[in-house]
Amino acid sequence: MAATNNEVWQTGTIIAVVDMASGIKQFVIRQSKPAKAAAGSHLDLMIDIEGQPTRRSYSVVAQSEDLWDLTISVFQVRNSRGGSIAMHQLTPGDTLNITQPIQNFPFRFGAKRYLLLAGGIGITALMEMANQVKRSGVDYEFHYVARSRQAMAYEADLAELHGSKMNLYIDDEGKTFDVSKFMDLVTPDTEVYMCGPIRLMDEVRRTWAATDLDITNLRYETFGASGWFDPEEFLVRVPEKGTEVLVGRNQTIVEALEGAGLDVMSDCRKGECGLCEARIIRHTGTIDHRDVFYSEQQKTEGEKIACCVSRLISDGSAASIDIILS
Q: Domain end: 77, 99, 121, which one?
């Protein structure tokens, strides 16, 4: 796999597994080569999916003071590509290959005010940021959105720690999140950090783009797994390489092409950096753009695709796409 960051791989040993909420398990992983995880860091790990070692990314929730132990939490996605299912089968004593913490979502001190917005399991990316903001004494608010209270990992701990700064939006309790009201809280000297499902992120980004606010004050990380449609199999062709391969429900275009022997440039594998960009020659079906790299106009134009996350959905007949790799 081609990449741009200087990754250090190591052995991770599962030392504890705890049920945190409906469908969410917390894993404490001991590093063999301990390294510090800054706020916003994530781990990449290799997990066996149907006999194939497959790379997945999970945000670091916390780290022990001696730096050896990292905590992540994993939500078993309804339409999982297999990673979360495999993770939920791990037990204490199991080992797997993991990277040292990787920082692609850095937190910046210096703003006068912060708003943190988490949707579902996106809470994991923001918890240490919130802790640091609280300790610094800077003005902040924490907003946490979920379908139900049972699905909210760390809800009680967060409420106790952040008190009145914590704002909960729980669909089945009748308190839904309103993006326009949230945006009313954003002032020119406010920085917003968010992580959550693509629908939530896209709505915030579109609303922000319609204002005069500085776009650099909106910072976010995405799962790379959430989209507008359920995943389906589809065919991808790279004519210049003479390659045609089926992309399975539990695969990305990058993974399928790598399995066919192609070297595909990629880095974040979450639809954020654009390194895996491919030019679309033709396609049948609907493109499910799952990235946050392209603008809404670029997605509408349909000339490029982020191969690490985006997919094709059938429109009554088999979906396929012909691409030129960067």
A: 99
Per the prediction, the chain carries an average pLDDT of 92
| 231-264 exposure pattern, b = at least 16 Cβ within 10 A, e = fewer | bbbbbbbbeeeeeebebbebbbbbbbbbeeeeeb
Tens-digit pLDDT profile for residues 287-297: 999 887 888 88
Do 272 and 314 lie in one domain? The reply is yes
Residue 227, domain member (yes or no): no
pLDDT band for 81, please (50, 70, 90 cuts): low
Dihedral sign, Cα of residue 173, residue 164, residue 167, residue 150: negative
Q: Which of 82, 70, 75 is nearest to 16 (CA)?
A: 70
Q: 259: helix, coil or strand?
A: helix
The residue that leads in pLDDT, 148 or 202, is 148
Residue with tokens 């952040």: 162
